[in-house]
Amino acid sequence: MVVIGSSKDSSSPFGKRLAANDKKTRDKAVKALGKWISNKTEFTHLELMKLWKGLFYCVWMSDKPIIQQQLSETLSSLILRVPRSSVMDFIATFWQTMCGEWHGIDRLRLDKFYFLLRRFLSYSFRMLKENEWDLETIEEFSKVMIDGPLNASNKTVPDGIRFHLIEIYLEELEKIVEVAQSGQVPTAHVLAPMFHLMSCTINGKVFKKVAEDVFEEILRKTAEGEGEDSDFEDEAEMTVFDKDEDEEEDEEEEDKDEEMEEDDDEDEDDEEAKAMAEMEMELEDGEEPEGESTTFDYDLMGIKERLGEAKDAEETVEQNRRKIAVLYTAYVDFCPLEDDDDEDEEEEANGEAPEDEEDEDEE
User: In terms of Cα–Cα distance, which of 155, 31, 36 is closest to 90?
Assistant: First the structure.
């Protein structure tokens, strides 16, 4: 439970120590912070905002990839130590702080903050897992993300954060669930922020990003898991919509500008980028079970139903409706068997023979 407005704010000392210039002071503050959070039963909104302000600058001051990795891991894992009654507010104030401070981050520090976002999302999913994928908890988490970094209309949310979350959403979810247990995860509910984005955004690039990196990617993964003889194989190359000519021209101009900037910055960023990539690879090593299928079992039927609701929903932006309908049709094609079985069962219940059996009788 978060209490708004408290006369005494016990997080102030942490804020100053977490942002200290001296590394030893910051390290001691982070270590003490974990114990303090575990023993707290109630947080004020002001406490959490000051806490994340201090933690933001704690990350800002950190140098060397290994130190940054350890710090991001430690800070993100605090999600699992916060009391259940305050964990959603803890997550919400993190994203509020990141969105508020993002435009002030220079390009040399961006990689370590992108890494922090990745680890924080991962531990958010771990929190849902520890709560046994309780639907009420998932709904609360989805609301935090929809009201915060994955809001479709909030112009204060930096595109860098929004696009990064779309890119890593499936990846981080798959990492924390064993493939054998993935069928028990209510993925259609976990993807609620993505349904919101795709339905309500007026930004064609955001829609395309969600469609391709989330919903089309699920179909591709399913197709690959089915193997070469799968009926899904031909669908693996599907795309929801083609680029408009204006969009292609805009992207070409942006690509040219980016290439010019990258040529200037490439030498300076190369070493840092390699280090961050190695950090991520170290974390990923050994997380996939050996000798088992690596195909995550997404709830295709549930996703299909949600897409069907989205294409007809009143709040769906009109320009997105047709594209969602195309995506919905792709999911219908991916899971036709269950619908066909239901129709056969209904016919049998009405005393009618399935069509195949009638044809055999006529012969």
Answer: 36
